[in-house]
Amino acid sequence: MAKKHILLVEDEEDILALMHYNLMREGFRVSLAMTGEEGLAAIREDPPDLVVLDLMLPNMDGLEVCRVIKSTPEYRNLAVVMVTARGEEADVVAGLELGADDYVTKPFSPRILIARIRAVLRRREEHPPVTDETAVIHVDGLVIHPGRNQVLIDGQPVELTFTEFRVLHFLASRPGWVFTRYQIVNAVRGDDYSVTDRAVDVQIVGLRKKLGNYGKYIETVRGVGYRFKD
Question: pTM (2 decimals)?
Answer without folding.
Answer: 0.62
